Amino acid sequence: MIKYSFEQKKALVTAYLNGEGGIRTVIKKYGYSN
Questions:
Q1: Confidence of residue 3 (pLDDT cuts 50, 70, 90)
Q2: How confident is the model at residue 31 (pLDDT cuts 50, 70, 90)?
Q3: What DSSP string describes the chain?
Q4: What is the mean pLDDT of residues 10-33?
Q5: For residue 15, which phi and psi values (nearest 5 degrees)?
Q6: Residue of 2, 3, 1, 4 lying closest to 13 (CA atoms)
Q7: Left (φ > 0), alpha (ψ -120 to 50) or beta: where does 21 sit?
Q8: By residue range, what is the domain housing residue 10?
Q9: 0.85 exceeded by the pTM?
Q10: Which residues contact residue 26 at a Cβ distance below 8 angstroms, ignoring those fewer than 6 apart?
């Protein structure tokens, strides 16, 4: 089962690496859950 698409994961990682905030901030921004 794929919960999140590759594109969604890539956007999250790219945002984190671009310094858009800490991992928790970026996760909240993109609507991911634990």
A1: confident
A2: confident
A3: --SS-HHHHHHHHHHHHTTSS-HHHHHHHHT---
A4: 92
A5: -60, -45
A6: 4
A7: left
A8: 1-34
A9: no
A10: 12, 15, 16, 20
Contact 32, 17 (CB under 8 A): no
Q: Rounded to 5 degrees, what angle do the CA atoms 4, 15, 18 make? A: 155
Which single residue is written with the structure tokens 């905030």? 21
What burial class does residue 19 get, using C-beta atoms within 10 Å of its C-beta: 0-12 exposed, 13-18 middle, 19+ buried? exposed
What type of residue sits at position 20? E
Domain count for the chain: 1
